[in-house]
C-alpha cells in the first residue's frame, strides 16, 4: 500500500478547483480536480477510487501531480508536450517545402507528393507518419490537384498543324500512285499536345502552371 497523501488547500485554491470541476475545460480535467477536492476533504485514495470507480494508482498519480505542479499538473502531458511541438514544426516545414518546387530539392517531379514530403520532413523533424502529414495539409488549407496546363513551348499553331496534314496527305497520295504503301498508325493520343499533367499539393485557391514536355506535333518523318 502506498504512503498516505495529505492534501491541504487554501480557500482560493478550493474555489479554483471547484470552477474547474464544473467548467467545460474537459471532463478528464474536471474529474482530476474532484480527486484533489475529495482528498482535501479528508478522503483516502482508496475511498476516492471506490467512490468514483477509478484505479487507485490513477487517483494517486493525479493528486501527486497537483501537489507538485498545481493546476497545470492536472492537464494531460501531451496537451503541451511533443505532439503540439511536432505539429507546429511539421506545419512550418510544410509551408517552406510547398512554397518551392520538388525539383529544388533534387526530385524529378514538378508537384509535391506525400512520399516526397515525408522524405524531407523525416530529415527535418524526425519520424512522422503519413496520416500526420495529410491531416496537417488539410487543416492548413492545402489541396491535392492538377497543375494548370500550358502548351509546350514549341507547340505548333493550328495553321502549322493544318499545313503539315496537307503536306502529309499530298505525300501519301503521290506515293500511292507510284507503288502500294502500308500505313502504320498509333492511338490518337500519340499526336496529343496535351499529355498527362502532374498533380501536387496547392494552397486552396492557388494556381500553378506547368509547361508540358511533349515534343512538337510536327515531325520530319512519318511511318509508311
TrEMBL record:
It comes from Legionella drancourtii LLAP12. InterPro entries: Homeodomain-like_sf (IPR009057), Transpos_IS630-like (IPR047655). It holds the Pfam family HTH_32. It comes from the Bacteria. This is Putative integrase protein.
Amino acid at each position: 500500500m502506498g504512503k498516505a497523501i495529505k492534501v491541504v488547500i487554501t480557500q482560493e485554491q478550493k474555489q479554483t478547483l471547484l470552477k474547474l470541476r464544473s467548467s467545460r475545460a474537459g471532463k478528464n480535467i474536471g474529474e482530476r480536480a474532484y480527486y484533489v477536492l475529495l482528498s482535501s476533504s479528508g478522503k483516502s485514495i482508496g475511498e476516492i477510487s471506490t467512490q468514483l470507480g477509478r484505479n487507485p494508482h490513477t487517483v494517486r498519480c493525479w493528486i501527486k501531480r497537483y501537489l507538485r505542479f498545481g493546476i497545470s499538473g492536472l492537464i494531460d502531458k501531451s496537451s503541451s508536450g511533443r505532439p503540439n511541438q511536432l505539429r507546429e514544426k511539421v506545419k512550418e516545414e510544410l509551408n517552406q517545402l510547398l512554397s518551392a518546387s520538388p525539383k529544388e530539392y533534387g526530385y524529378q517531379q514538378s508537384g509535391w507528393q506525400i512520399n516526397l514530403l515525408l522524405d524531407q520532413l523525416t530529415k527535418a523533424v524526425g519520424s512522422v507518419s503519413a496520416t500526420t502529414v495529410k491531416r496537417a495539409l488539410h487543416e492548413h488549407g492545402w489541396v491535392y490537384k492538377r497543375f494548370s496546363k500550358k502548351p509546350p513551348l514549341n507547340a505548333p499553331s493550328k495553321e502549322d498543324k493544318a499545313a503539315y496534314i496537307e503536306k502529309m496527305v499530298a505525300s501519301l497520295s503521290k506515293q500511292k500512285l507510284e507503288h502500294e504503301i502500308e500505313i502504320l498508325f498509333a492511338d490518337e493520343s500519340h499526336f496529343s499536345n496535351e499529355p498527362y499533367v502532374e498533380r501536387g499539393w496547392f494552397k486552396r485557391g492557388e494556381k500553378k502552371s506547368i509547361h508540358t514536355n511533349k515534343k512538337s506535333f510536327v515531325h520530319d518523318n512519318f511511318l509508311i
